[in-house]
Write a structure and sequence with these properties.
The chain has 545 residues and is of the alpha+beta class. Helices cover 35% and strands 19% of the residues. The strands form 4 sheets. A 7-stranded antiparallel beta sheet has the order 15-12-14-13-17-18-16, with helices on both faces. Strands 5-6-10-8-9 form a 5-stranded antiparallel beta sheet. Helix 10 (285-298) packs across helix 13 (354-370) and helix 16 packs antiparallel against helix 17. Bound molecules: flavin-adenine dinucleotide.
Length: 545
Protein backbone atom coordinates (compact mmCIF):
# COMPACT_ATOMS: atom_id res chain seq x y z
CA UNK A 1 0.00 0.00 0.00
CA UNK A 2 3.00 2.30 -0.33
CA UNK A 3 2.74 5.04 -2.88
CA UNK A 4 5.68 6.80 -4.49
CA UNK A 5 4.69 10.04 -2.83
CA UNK A 6 4.31 8.24 0.51
CA UNK A 7 0.69 9.28 0.70
CA UNK A 8 -1.45 6.49 2.10
CA UNK A 9 -4.04 5.01 -0.20
CA UNK A 10 -7.57 4.76 1.07
CA UNK A 11 -8.90 1.28 1.83
CA UNK A 12 -12.50 0.87 0.62
CA UNK A 13 -12.50 4.03 -1.46
CA UNK A 14 -10.80 6.03 -4.14
CA UNK A 15 -7.42 7.71 -3.90
CA UNK A 16 -5.52 8.96 -0.90
CA UNK A 17 -6.65 9.28 2.70
CA UNK A 18 -5.71 12.96 2.83
CA UNK A 19 -7.90 13.94 -0.16
CA UNK A 20 -11.67 14.43 -0.32
CA UNK A 21 -14.17 16.07 -2.65
CA UNK A 22 -17.40 17.04 -1.01
CA UNK A 23 -20.64 17.43 -2.99
CA UNK A 24 -21.96 20.96 -3.30
CA UNK A 25 -25.40 21.79 -1.83
CA UNK A 26 -26.60 22.21 -5.45
CA UNK A 27 -25.62 18.60 -6.25
CA UNK A 28 -27.38 17.30 -3.14
CA UNK A 29 -30.47 19.22 -4.17
CA UNK A 30 -30.22 17.84 -7.73
CA UNK A 31 -30.03 14.26 -6.38
CA UNK A 32 -32.99 14.80 -4.09
CA UNK A 33 -34.99 16.03 -7.06
CA UNK A 34 -33.93 13.47 -9.66
CA UNK A 35 -33.27 10.33 -7.61
CA UNK A 36 -35.19 10.91 -4.40
CA UNK A 37 -34.24 11.39 -0.76
CA UNK A 38 -31.10 9.52 0.30
CA UNK A 39 -31.14 5.88 1.38
CA UNK A 40 -29.12 4.64 4.35
CA UNK A 41 -25.52 5.86 4.48
CA UNK A 42 -22.76 3.35 3.88
CA UNK A 43 -19.99 4.62 6.12
CA UNK A 44 -16.55 3.13 6.67
CA UNK A 45 -16.18 3.79 10.36
CA UNK A 46 -15.91 0.13 11.33
CA UNK A 47 -14.32 -1.21 8.16
CA UNK A 48 -14.38 -4.87 9.18
CA UNK A 49 -11.66 -7.13 7.85
CA UNK A 50 -13.01 -10.59 6.99
CA UNK A 51 -11.35 -13.18 9.15
CA UNK A 52 -10.10 -15.56 6.48
CA UNK A 53 -6.73 -16.97 7.34
CA UNK A 54 -4.13 -17.16 4.59
CA UNK A 55 -3.50 -20.65 3.33
CA UNK A 56 0.10 -21.85 3.73
CA UNK A 57 2.30 -21.08 0.72
CA UNK A 58 5.75 -22.28 -0.34
CA UNK A 59 8.59 -19.76 -0.38
CA UNK A 60 8.15 -17.26 -3.23
CA UNK A 61 10.63 -14.83 -4.84
CA UNK A 62 10.09 -11.10 -4.15
CA UNK A 63 8.66 -9.40 -1.07
CA UNK A 64 5.85 -11.51 0.37
CA UNK A 65 3.22 -10.02 2.70
CA UNK A 66 0.35 -11.89 4.33
CA UNK A 67 -0.81 -9.07 6.60
CA UNK A 68 -4.64 -8.81 6.70
CA UNK A 69 -4.95 -5.18 5.63
CA UNK A 70 -2.62 -5.64 2.65
CA UNK A 71 -4.53 -8.77 1.58
CA UNK A 72 -7.88 -6.98 1.85
CA UNK A 73 -6.52 -3.97 -0.05
CA UNK A 74 -5.52 -6.31 -2.89
CA UNK A 75 -8.72 -8.37 -2.81
CA UNK A 76 -10.74 -5.85 -4.82
CA UNK A 77 -10.43 -3.07 -7.37
CA UNK A 78 -12.31 0.21 -7.59
CA UNK A 79 -15.73 -0.79 -8.95
CA UNK A 80 -18.75 0.42 -6.99
CA UNK A 81 -19.44 -3.02 -5.55
CA UNK A 82 -15.77 -3.48 -4.65
CA UNK A 83 -16.07 -0.44 -2.42
CA UNK A 84 -19.38 -1.66 -0.95
CA UNK A 85 -17.98 -5.14 -0.26
CA UNK A 86 -14.83 -3.82 1.42
CA UNK A 87 -16.73 -1.30 3.52
CA UNK A 88 -19.39 -3.77 4.59
CA UNK A 89 -16.96 -6.60 5.35
CA UNK A 90 -18.50 -8.90 2.73
CA UNK A 91 -15.48 -9.55 0.50
CA UNK A 92 -15.85 -13.26 -0.38
CA UNK A 93 -12.15 -14.04 -0.86
CA UNK A 94 -8.78 -12.54 -0.02
CA UNK A 95 -5.47 -13.37 -1.68
CA UNK A 96 -3.39 -15.65 0.50
CA UNK A 97 -0.45 -13.29 0.08
CA UNK A 98 0.62 -10.16 -1.77
CA UNK A 99 3.86 -10.76 -3.62
CA UNK A 100 6.00 -7.87 -4.89
CA UNK A 101 8.68 -8.89 -7.40
CA UNK A 102 11.45 -6.42 -8.23
CA UNK A 103 12.32 -7.69 -11.72
CA UNK A 104 11.27 -10.03 -14.54
CA UNK A 105 13.47 -12.88 -13.23
CA UNK A 106 11.53 -12.86 -9.98
CA UNK A 107 8.27 -12.95 -11.96
CA UNK A 108 9.58 -16.04 -13.76
CA UNK A 109 10.50 -17.53 -10.36
CA UNK A 110 6.99 -16.83 -9.04
CA UNK A 111 5.45 -18.64 -12.03
CA UNK A 112 7.66 -21.69 -11.42
CA UNK A 113 6.65 -21.96 -7.75
CA UNK A 114 2.97 -21.34 -8.55
CA UNK A 115 2.94 -23.99 -11.26
CA UNK A 116 4.44 -26.61 -8.93
CA UNK A 117 2.16 -25.72 -6.01
CA UNK A 118 -1.04 -25.04 -8.02
CA UNK A 119 -1.34 -21.38 -6.98
CA UNK A 120 -3.42 -18.89 -8.97
CA UNK A 121 -2.04 -15.44 -9.75
CA UNK A 122 -3.80 -12.10 -10.08
CA UNK A 123 -1.47 -9.43 -11.56
CA UNK A 124 -1.93 -6.05 -9.87
CA UNK A 125 -0.93 -2.67 -11.33
CA UNK A 126 -2.67 0.21 -9.57
CA UNK A 127 -5.76 -1.81 -8.64
CA UNK A 128 -8.03 0.75 -10.32
CA UNK A 129 -9.95 -1.80 -12.37
CA UNK A 130 -13.68 -1.09 -12.55
CA UNK A 131 -14.52 -4.42 -14.17
CA UNK A 132 -13.56 -6.83 -11.38
CA UNK A 133 -10.22 -7.41 -13.15
CA UNK A 134 -8.09 -7.60 -9.98
CA UNK A 135 -10.66 -9.28 -7.76
CA UNK A 136 -9.54 -12.38 -5.90
CA UNK A 137 -11.52 -15.39 -7.15
CA UNK A 138 -13.10 -17.75 -4.65
CA UNK A 139 -11.03 -20.84 -5.30
CA UNK A 140 -10.04 -24.13 -3.73
CA UNK A 141 -6.51 -23.33 -4.81
CA UNK A 142 -4.40 -20.68 -3.05
CA UNK A 143 -4.38 -17.28 -4.80
CA UNK A 144 -1.70 -14.60 -4.72
CA UNK A 145 -1.84 -11.00 -5.85
CA UNK A 146 1.34 -10.02 -7.72
CA UNK A 147 1.73 -6.28 -7.12
CA UNK A 148 4.14 -4.70 -9.61
CA UNK A 149 4.83 -1.50 -7.66
CA UNK A 150 8.52 -2.40 -7.14
CA UNK A 151 8.95 -2.70 -10.91
CA UNK A 152 8.41 0.98 -11.57
CA UNK A 153 10.33 3.88 -13.06
CA UNK A 154 12.17 4.76 -16.25
CA UNK A 155 14.42 1.97 -17.49
CA UNK A 156 15.73 3.61 -20.65
CA UNK A 157 15.10 6.75 -22.68
CA UNK A 158 16.02 7.41 -26.31
CA UNK A 159 15.49 11.17 -26.74
CA UNK A 160 16.31 11.02 -30.45
CA UNK A 161 13.30 8.76 -31.07
CA UNK A 162 11.25 9.87 -28.05
CA UNK A 163 11.03 6.23 -26.91
CA UNK A 164 10.83 5.66 -23.15
CA UNK A 165 10.98 2.22 -21.52
CA UNK A 166 9.04 2.05 -18.26
CA UNK A 167 8.51 -0.64 -15.65
CA UNK A 168 4.90 -1.90 -15.48
CA UNK A 169 4.19 -0.50 -12.01
CA UNK A 170 4.96 3.12 -12.98
CA UNK A 171 1.98 5.37 -12.21
CA UNK A 172 0.74 8.33 -14.26
CA UNK A 173 2.38 11.03 -12.11
CA UNK A 174 5.67 9.07 -12.10
CA UNK A 175 5.60 8.79 -15.90
CA UNK A 176 4.94 12.49 -16.42
CA UNK A 177 7.35 13.81 -13.80
CA UNK A 178 10.17 11.61 -15.13
CA UNK A 179 9.55 12.58 -18.74
CA UNK A 180 9.22 16.26 -17.81
CA UNK A 181 12.86 16.17 -16.67
CA UNK A 182 13.72 15.47 -20.31
CA UNK A 183 11.20 17.99 -21.69
CA UNK A 184 8.86 15.18 -22.87
CA UNK A 185 5.34 13.98 -22.12
CA UNK A 186 3.30 10.83 -22.70
CA UNK A 187 -0.04 12.66 -22.62
CA UNK A 188 -1.99 9.67 -21.26
CA UNK A 189 -4.44 11.07 -18.71
CA UNK A 190 -7.18 8.62 -17.74
CA UNK A 191 -9.27 9.94 -14.86
CA UNK A 192 -7.54 7.29 -12.72
CA UNK A 193 -4.14 8.75 -13.70
CA UNK A 194 -3.01 9.32 -10.11
CA UNK A 195 -3.00 5.57 -9.35
CA UNK A 196 -3.16 3.52 -12.56
CA UNK A 197 0.02 2.10 -14.06
CA UNK A 198 1.75 1.60 -17.40
CA UNK A 199 1.23 -2.20 -17.25
CA UNK A 200 -2.43 -1.82 -16.28
CA UNK A 201 -3.05 0.69 -19.08
CA UNK A 202 -1.61 -1.66 -21.68
CA UNK A 203 -3.35 -4.71 -20.21
CA UNK A 204 -6.76 -2.99 -20.41
CA UNK A 205 -6.40 -0.86 -23.59
CA UNK A 206 -6.86 2.29 -21.62
CA UNK A 207 -7.77 5.65 -23.11
CA UNK A 208 -6.87 9.02 -21.58
CA UNK A 209 -8.93 12.21 -21.52
CA UNK A 210 -6.66 13.74 -24.17
CA UNK A 211 -6.75 10.69 -26.45
CA UNK A 212 -7.82 12.91 -29.33
CA UNK A 213 -4.41 14.58 -29.37
CA UNK A 214 -2.14 11.88 -27.99
CA UNK A 215 -3.94 8.69 -28.99
CA UNK A 216 -5.08 5.67 -26.98
CA UNK A 217 -2.54 3.61 -25.03
CA UNK A 218 -2.24 1.15 -27.93
CA UNK A 219 -1.04 4.04 -30.12
CA UNK A 220 1.62 4.82 -27.51
CA UNK A 221 2.96 1.32 -26.81
CA UNK A 222 5.71 0.73 -29.38
CA UNK A 223 7.05 -2.47 -27.84
CA UNK A 224 6.80 -4.68 -24.78
CA UNK A 225 8.35 -7.43 -22.75
CA UNK A 226 5.85 -10.00 -21.55
CA UNK A 227 6.70 -12.77 -19.14
CA UNK A 228 4.35 -15.73 -19.48
CA UNK A 229 4.50 -19.12 -17.76
CA UNK A 230 5.56 -20.46 -21.20
CA UNK A 231 8.50 -18.06 -21.50
CA UNK A 232 9.81 -14.55 -21.98
CA UNK A 233 8.43 -12.74 -25.01
CA UNK A 234 9.92 -9.53 -26.43
CA UNK A 235 7.89 -7.49 -28.89
CA UNK A 236 10.38 -5.02 -30.38
CA UNK A 237 9.69 -1.29 -30.59
CA UNK A 238 9.36 -0.39 -34.25
CA UNK A 239 7.68 2.63 -35.83
CA UNK A 240 5.77 0.38 -38.21
CA UNK A 241 5.95 -3.19 -39.45
CA UNK A 242 4.27 -5.40 -42.04
CA UNK A 243 5.84 -8.54 -40.58
CA UNK A 244 2.60 -10.39 -40.04
CA UNK A 245 -0.19 -9.52 -37.60
CA UNK A 246 0.72 -7.00 -34.90
CA UNK A 247 1.18 -9.18 -31.83
CA UNK A 248 1.32 -6.18 -29.50
CA UNK A 249 -2.42 -6.02 -30.08
CA UNK A 250 -2.83 -9.57 -28.85
CA UNK A 251 -1.21 -8.60 -25.56
CA UNK A 252 -2.87 -5.21 -25.17
CA UNK A 253 -6.29 -5.86 -23.72
CA UNK A 254 -5.33 -9.36 -22.57
CA UNK A 255 -5.91 -8.31 -18.92
CA UNK A 256 -3.27 -10.57 -17.43
CA UNK A 257 -4.53 -13.72 -19.17
CA UNK A 258 -1.50 -14.14 -21.45
CA UNK A 259 1.32 -13.08 -19.15
CA UNK A 260 2.62 -10.19 -17.10
CA UNK A 261 3.83 -7.13 -18.98
CA UNK A 262 7.22 -6.47 -17.39
CA UNK A 263 8.32 -3.55 -19.58
CA UNK A 264 6.63 -1.18 -22.02
CA UNK A 265 8.37 1.04 -24.56
CA UNK A 266 6.25 4.14 -24.97
CA UNK A 267 6.16 6.76 -27.72
CA UNK A 268 6.53 10.15 -26.07
CA UNK A 269 6.49 13.70 -27.42
CA UNK A 270 8.04 17.02 -26.59
CA UNK A 271 6.10 18.66 -23.82
CA UNK A 272 3.79 21.32 -25.26
CA UNK A 273 4.26 24.91 -24.18
CA UNK A 274 0.65 25.06 -23.09
CA UNK A 275 -2.68 23.22 -23.06
CA UNK A 276 -5.74 25.44 -23.20
CA UNK A 277 -9.37 24.37 -22.86
CA UNK A 278 -12.24 26.57 -24.09
CA UNK A 279 -15.90 26.06 -23.20
CA UNK A 280 -19.08 26.50 -25.21
CA UNK A 281 -22.75 25.85 -24.82
CA UNK A 282 -24.52 24.15 -27.69
CA UNK A 283 -28.27 24.79 -27.92
CA UNK A 284 -29.15 21.08 -27.80
CA UNK A 285 -27.62 17.61 -28.01
CA UNK A 286 -28.26 17.01 -31.69
CA UNK A 287 -26.56 20.27 -32.70
CA UNK A 288 -23.76 19.59 -30.22
CA UNK A 289 -23.09 16.13 -31.68
CA UNK A 290 -23.07 17.61 -35.20
CA UNK A 291 -20.59 20.24 -34.01
CA UNK A 292 -18.24 17.62 -32.50
CA UNK A 293 -18.41 15.55 -35.69
CA UNK A 294 -17.68 18.65 -37.78
CA UNK A 295 -14.63 19.36 -35.61
CA UNK A 296 -13.42 15.78 -36.11
CA UNK A 297 -13.92 15.94 -39.85
CA UNK A 298 -12.15 19.33 -40.04
CA UNK A 299 -8.82 17.73 -39.10
CA UNK A 300 -8.02 20.56 -36.66
CA UNK A 301 -5.15 19.57 -34.31
CA UNK A 302 -7.16 19.47 -31.06
CA UNK A 303 -6.04 17.59 -27.94
CA UNK A 304 -9.45 17.00 -26.39
CA UNK A 305 -13.14 17.33 -27.08
CA UNK A 306 -15.97 16.72 -24.69
CA UNK A 307 -19.71 17.20 -25.05
CA UNK A 308 -22.02 16.77 -22.05
CA UNK A 309 -25.69 16.00 -22.55
CA UNK A 310 -28.24 18.33 -20.91
CA UNK A 311 -28.47 16.46 -17.56
CA UNK A 312 -24.67 16.27 -17.31
CA UNK A 313 -24.41 19.96 -18.16
CA UNK A 314 -26.76 20.69 -15.27
CA UNK A 315 -24.70 18.52 -12.91
CA UNK A 316 -21.39 19.99 -14.13
CA UNK A 317 -22.69 23.31 -12.93
CA UNK A 318 -23.92 21.80 -9.67
CA UNK A 319 -20.56 20.18 -8.76
CA UNK A 320 -18.52 23.34 -8.99
CA UNK A 321 -18.82 25.14 -12.26
CA UNK A 322 -22.06 26.51 -10.82
CA UNK A 323 -20.11 28.55 -8.30
CA UNK A 324 -17.83 30.10 -10.91
CA UNK A 325 -18.27 33.10 -13.18
CA UNK A 326 -19.27 30.53 -15.77
CA UNK A 327 -22.54 29.93 -13.95
CA UNK A 328 -23.85 33.44 -14.34
CA UNK A 329 -22.75 33.57 -17.99
CA UNK A 330 -24.35 30.22 -18.68
CA UNK A 331 -27.54 31.13 -16.89
CA UNK A 332 -27.79 34.44 -18.74
CA UNK A 333 -27.30 32.56 -21.99
CA UNK A 334 -29.94 29.99 -21.10
CA UNK A 335 -32.44 32.70 -20.14
CA UNK A 336 -31.81 34.63 -23.34
CA UNK A 337 -32.33 31.60 -25.54
CA UNK A 338 -35.12 30.06 -23.49
CA UNK A 339 -33.35 26.66 -23.67
CA UNK A 340 -32.85 25.97 -20.00
CA UNK A 341 -33.29 22.21 -20.27
CA UNK A 342 -31.45 21.36 -23.48
CA UNK A 343 -28.10 23.22 -23.39
CA UNK A 344 -24.98 21.08 -23.72
CA UNK A 345 -21.55 21.98 -22.40
CA UNK A 346 -18.67 21.54 -24.85
CA UNK A 347 -15.00 21.57 -23.83
CA UNK A 348 -12.39 21.96 -26.60
CA UNK A 349 -8.68 21.63 -25.84
CA UNK A 350 -5.52 22.26 -27.82
CA UNK A 351 -1.88 21.67 -26.88
CA UNK A 352 1.28 23.12 -28.42
CA UNK A 353 3.00 26.47 -28.83
CA UNK A 354 0.97 29.62 -28.15
CA UNK A 355 0.50 30.15 -31.88
CA UNK A 356 -0.51 26.53 -32.58
CA UNK A 357 -3.01 26.57 -29.72
CA UNK A 358 -4.48 29.91 -30.77
CA UNK A 359 -4.90 28.76 -34.38
CA UNK A 360 -6.49 25.44 -33.45
CA UNK A 361 -8.91 27.03 -30.99
CA UNK A 362 -9.80 29.80 -33.44
CA UNK A 363 -10.62 27.14 -36.04
CA UNK A 364 -12.78 25.33 -33.49
CA UNK A 365 -14.54 28.55 -32.55
CA UNK A 366 -15.62 29.25 -36.11
CA UNK A 367 -16.93 25.69 -36.61
CA UNK A 368 -18.82 25.70 -33.33
CA UNK A 369 -20.28 29.15 -34.03
CA UNK A 370 -21.67 27.80 -37.28
CA UNK A 371 -23.38 25.20 -35.07
CA UNK A 372 -24.94 27.94 -32.94
CA UNK A 373 -22.69 27.27 -29.93
CA UNK A 374 -21.92 30.19 -27.62
CA UNK A 375 -18.46 30.67 -26.16
CA UNK A 376 -18.02 30.63 -22.37
CA UNK A 377 -14.30 31.44 -22.53
CA UNK A 378 -11.54 29.74 -20.52
CA UNK A 379 -13.06 29.71 -17.01
CA UNK A 380 -14.91 26.37 -17.11
CA UNK A 381 -11.97 24.71 -18.88
CA UNK A 382 -9.54 25.87 -16.18
CA UNK A 383 -11.96 24.60 -13.55
CA UNK A 384 -12.21 21.22 -15.28
CA UNK A 385 -8.40 20.96 -15.67
CA UNK A 386 -7.94 21.72 -11.96
CA UNK A 387 -10.51 19.22 -10.64
CA UNK A 388 -10.56 16.43 -13.21
CA UNK A 389 -8.62 13.93 -11.06
CA UNK A 390 -10.56 14.90 -7.92
CA UNK A 391 -14.03 14.03 -9.24
CA UNK A 392 -13.68 10.30 -8.38
CA UNK A 393 -13.54 11.25 -4.70
CA UNK A 394 -17.18 12.30 -4.94
CA UNK A 395 -18.40 8.71 -5.15
CA UNK A 396 -17.61 7.81 -1.53
CA UNK A 397 -18.81 11.19 -0.30
CA UNK A 398 -22.20 10.48 -1.91
CA UNK A 399 -22.28 6.90 -0.65
CA UNK A 400 -21.80 8.25 2.87
CA UNK A 401 -24.89 10.38 2.27
CA UNK A 402 -27.10 7.57 0.94
CA UNK A 403 -26.69 7.68 -2.87
CA UNK A 404 -24.76 5.21 -5.02
CA UNK A 405 -23.14 6.16 -8.31
CA UNK A 406 -21.28 4.29 -11.03
CA UNK A 407 -20.19 4.74 -14.64
CA UNK A 408 -20.10 2.71 -17.83
CA UNK A 409 -18.84 3.48 -21.30
CA UNK A 410 -19.06 2.35 -24.90
CA UNK A 411 -18.36 3.47 -28.48
CA UNK A 412 -20.50 3.47 -31.62
CA UNK A 413 -20.43 4.94 -35.14
CA UNK A 414 -21.89 8.47 -35.43
CA UNK A 415 -24.99 7.11 -37.17
CA UNK A 416 -26.00 5.16 -34.03
CA UNK A 417 -24.68 7.46 -31.27
CA UNK A 418 -27.92 9.26 -30.40
CA UNK A 419 -29.94 6.03 -30.58
CA UNK A 420 -27.46 4.19 -28.35
CA UNK A 421 -27.59 6.97 -25.75
CA UNK A 422 -31.39 6.78 -25.73
CA UNK A 423 -31.39 2.97 -25.38
CA UNK A 424 -28.89 2.91 -22.51
CA UNK A 425 -30.60 5.76 -20.71
CA UNK A 426 -33.97 4.03 -21.01
CA UNK A 427 -32.52 0.73 -19.76
CA UNK A 428 -30.95 2.39 -16.72
CA UNK A 429 -33.93 4.62 -15.96
CA UNK A 430 -36.39 1.71 -15.95
CA UNK A 431 -34.27 -1.07 -14.43
CA UNK A 432 -35.27 -0.31 -10.83
CA UNK A 433 -38.85 0.67 -11.63
CA UNK A 434 -40.14 -2.59 -10.18
CA UNK A 435 -38.99 -1.37 -6.75
CA UNK A 436 -40.39 2.10 -7.40
CA UNK A 437 -36.84 3.47 -7.49
CA UNK A 438 -35.51 6.12 -9.85
CA UNK A 439 -32.12 6.24 -11.60
CA UNK A 440 -30.68 9.50 -12.90
CA UNK A 441 -28.42 9.17 -15.94
CA UNK A 442 -25.82 11.54 -17.37
CA UNK A 443 -23.90 11.05 -20.59
CA UNK A 444 -20.96 12.63 -22.37
CA UNK A 445 -18.86 12.23 -25.48
CA UNK A 446 -15.16 12.34 -24.59
CA UNK A 447 -13.25 10.25 -27.13
CA UNK A 448 -14.50 11.22 -30.58
CA UNK A 449 -13.14 9.58 -33.73
CA UNK A 450 -13.58 10.20 -37.44
CA UNK A 451 -16.25 7.49 -37.69
CA UNK A 452 -17.91 7.65 -34.30
CA UNK A 453 -17.53 8.32 -30.64
CA UNK A 454 -17.36 6.95 -27.15
CA UNK A 455 -20.37 7.51 -24.89
CA UNK A 456 -19.72 7.69 -21.17
CA UNK A 457 -22.63 7.24 -18.76
CA UNK A 458 -22.80 8.16 -15.07
CA UNK A 459 -25.80 6.92 -13.13
CA UNK A 460 -27.12 7.57 -9.64
CA UNK A 461 -29.51 5.55 -7.52
CA UNK A 462 -30.37 5.31 -3.83
CA UNK A 463 -28.54 2.99 -1.45
CA UNK A 464 -30.89 0.14 -0.51
CA UNK A 465 -31.67 -1.03 3.01
CA UNK A 466 -28.44 -3.04 3.23
CA UNK A 467 -25.23 -3.47 1.21
CA UNK A 468 -26.36 -6.73 -0.42
CA UNK A 469 -29.59 -5.15 -1.65
CA UNK A 470 -27.62 -2.16 -2.99
CA UNK A 471 -25.38 -4.56 -4.92
CA UNK A 472 -28.51 -6.28 -6.26
CA UNK A 473 -29.75 -2.92 -7.55
CA UNK A 474 -26.39 -2.29 -9.19
CA UNK A 475 -26.35 -5.75 -10.82
CA UNK A 476 -29.82 -5.13 -12.26
CA UNK A 477 -28.70 -1.78 -13.68
CA UNK A 478 -25.50 -3.25 -15.08
CA UNK A 479 -27.29 -6.14 -16.81
CA UNK A 480 -29.92 -3.82 -18.28
CA UNK A 481 -27.27 -1.42 -19.62
CA UNK A 482 -25.08 -4.21 -21.03
CA UNK A 483 -28.06 -5.69 -22.87
CA UNK A 484 -28.91 -2.25 -24.25
CA UNK A 485 -25.35 -1.94 -25.54
CA UNK A 486 -25.60 -5.29 -27.30
CA UNK A 487 -28.98 -4.30 -28.81
CA UNK A 488 -27.36 -1.08 -30.07
CA UNK A 489 -24.44 -3.00 -31.62
CA UNK A 490 -22.12 -0.94 -29.41
CA UNK A 491 -18.97 -2.23 -27.72
CA UNK A 492 -19.26 -3.57 -24.18
CA UNK A 493 -16.31 -1.31 -23.32
CA UNK A 494 -14.48 1.53 -25.01
CA UNK A 495 -11.72 1.76 -22.38
CA UNK A 496 -12.51 0.10 -19.04
CA UNK A 497 -11.93 -3.38 -20.43
CA UNK A 498 -13.75 -6.66 -19.87
CA UNK A 499 -12.57 -8.01 -16.51
CA UNK A 500 -15.17 -10.34 -15.01
CA UNK A 501 -18.25 -8.14 -15.10
CA UNK A 502 -18.30 -7.57 -18.88
CA UNK A 503 -17.16 -11.08 -19.84
CA UNK A 504 -20.70 -12.51 -20.39
CA UNK A 505 -21.16 -9.96 -23.21
CA UNK A 506 -17.76 -10.30 -24.94
CA UNK A 507 -19.04 -13.02 -27.29
CA UNK A 508 -21.26 -10.52 -29.11
CA UNK A 509 -18.21 -8.57 -30.22
CA UNK A 510 -15.42 -11.17 -30.43
CA UNK A 511 -17.58 -13.99 -31.84
CA UNK A 512 -17.31 -17.64 -30.84
CA UNK A 513 -14.36 -18.26 -33.12
CA UNK A 514 -12.62 -15.14 -31.84
CA UNK A 515 -13.03 -16.32 -28.25
CA UNK A 516 -11.60 -19.71 -29.24
CA UNK A 517 -8.54 -18.03 -30.76
CA UNK A 518 -8.00 -16.05 -27.55
CA UNK A 519 -8.53 -19.18 -25.47
CA UNK A 520 -5.93 -21.04 -27.58
CA UNK A 521 -3.44 -18.19 -27.08
CA UNK A 522 -4.03 -18.30 -23.33
CA UNK A 523 -3.52 -22.09 -23.27
CA UNK A 524 -0.26 -21.74 -25.25
CA UNK A 525 1.20 -19.00 -23.05
CA UNK A 526 -0.24 -20.18 -19.73
CA UNK A 527 -0.85 -23.94 -20.11
CA UNK A 528 -1.73 -24.47 -16.44
CA UNK A 529 -4.18 -21.56 -16.29
CA UNK A 530 -2.31 -19.80 -13.47
CA UNK A 531 -3.01 -16.22 -14.52
CA UNK A 532 -6.41 -14.58 -13.99
CA UNK A 533 -8.38 -17.68 -15.10
CA UNK A 534 -11.65 -15.96 -14.13
CA UNK A 535 -10.99 -12.79 -16.18
CA UNK A 536 -11.87 -11.90 -19.80
CA UNK A 537 -12.70 -15.36 -21.14
CA UNK A 538 -14.94 -16.83 -18.43
CA UNK A 539 -18.53 -15.81 -19.31
CA UNK A 540 -20.01 -16.63 -15.88
CA UNK A 541 -22.25 -13.85 -14.55
CA UNK A 542 -20.41 -12.73 -11.40
CA UNK A 543 -22.09 -9.39 -10.85
CA UNK A 544 -23.18 -10.36 -7.34
CA UNK A 545 -19.74 -11.51 -6.18
C1 LIG B 1 -12.17 6.69 -10.85
C2 LIG B 1 -11.72 5.90 -12.04
C3 LIG B 1 -11.55 6.55 -13.25
C4 LIG B 1 -11.13 5.82 -14.37
N1 LIG B 1 -10.94 6.48 -15.54
C5 LIG B 1 -10.45 5.82 -16.61
C6 LIG B 1 -10.18 6.51 -17.83
O1 LIG B 1 -10.37 7.72 -17.95
N2 LIG B 1 -9.68 5.79 -18.87
C7 LIG B 1 -9.43 4.46 -18.75
O2 LIG B 1 -8.94 3.87 -19.71
N3 LIG B 1 -9.71 3.78 -17.62
C8 LIG B 1 -10.19 4.42 -16.55
N4 LIG B 1 -10.46 3.74 -15.40
C9 LIG B 1 -10.25 2.28 -15.33
C10 LIG B 1 -8.83 1.86 -14.90
O3 LIG B 1 -8.17 2.93 -14.27
C11 LIG B 1 -8.05 1.39 -16.11
O4 LIG B 1 -8.57 0.15 -16.52
C12 LIG B 1 -6.54 1.25 -15.89
O5 LIG B 1 -5.94 1.05 -17.14
C13 LIG B 1 -6.15 0.14 -14.96
O6 LIG B 1 -4.80 0.32 -14.62
P1 LIG B 1 -4.20 -0.31 -13.27
O7 LIG B 1 -2.73 -0.09 -13.30
O8 LIG B 1 -4.91 0.20 -12.10
O9 LIG B 1 -4.52 -1.84 -13.51
P2 LIG B 1 -5.19 -2.87 -12.50
O10 LIG B 1 -6.52 -2.39 -12.10
O11 LIG B 1 -4.24 -3.19 -11.43
O12 LIG B 1 -5.33 -4.13 -13.46
C14 LIG B 1 -6.23 -4.15 -14.54
C15 LIG B 1 -6.17 -5.52 -15.21
O13 LIG B 1 -4.91 -5.71 -15.83
C16 LIG B 1 -4.16 -6.76 -15.21
N5 LIG B 1 -2.80 -6.23 -15.10
C17 LIG B 1 -2.38 -5.17 -14.36
N6 LIG B 1 -1.07 -4.96 -14.56
C18 LIG B 1 -0.65 -5.90 -15.46
C19 LIG B 1 0.59 -6.19 -16.09
N7 LIG B 1 1.69 -5.49 -15.83
N8 LIG B 1 0.63 -7.21 -16.97
C20 LIG B 1 -0.47 -7.94 -17.26
N9 LIG B 1 -1.67 -7.72 -16.68
C21 LIG B 1 -1.76 -6.69 -15.80
C22 LIG B 1 -4.86 -7.03 -13.89
O14 LIG B 1 -4.75 -8.38 -13.49
C23 LIG B 1 -6.30 -6.67 -14.23
O15 LIG B 1 -6.96 -7.73 -14.85
C24 LIG B 1 -10.89 4.43 -14.25
C25 LIG B 1 -11.06 3.80 -13.03
C26 LIG B 1 -11.47 4.52 -11.93
C27 LIG B 1 -11.64 3.83 -10.62
Amino acid sequence: MRTPSNRRRRLGGWGFEDENFEPSPQLIQWLNTHVGPPGPALGDTNLPIPGTRPRPLPSLPGEVCSEDRDRLFHARGQGLIDIIRVRSGTVPALPDAVVRPSNADEVIGIFAVCRDAGIQIVPWGGGTSVTGGVNTPSSDQPVISVDLERMSGLIDFDPISGLAVFGPGTTGPQVESTLAEHGFTLGHYPQSWELATVGGWAATRSSGQESLGYGRIEDMVAGMEVVAPAGRWRLPALPGSAAGPDLRHLVMGSEGRLGIITEATLRTRQKPEQTVVHAYLAPDLETGLDGIKALMWSGLPLSMLRLSDPPETEVAMAIGLGTSRFASLAQAYLRLRGIRDQACLILVGAAGSKIEVAEALEGARSILRSHRAVSLGRGPGRHWQRDRFRHPYLREALMDRGWATDTLETAVPWSRAAHCRTEVRRALETALGIEGERTAVLCHVSHPYIDGTSLYFTFFFRNASDPEATIERWARLKRAASEALVRSSATISHHHGVGIWHAPWLKYEAGTLGLDVLGDAARRLDPDGLLNPHVLLDPTDRLME
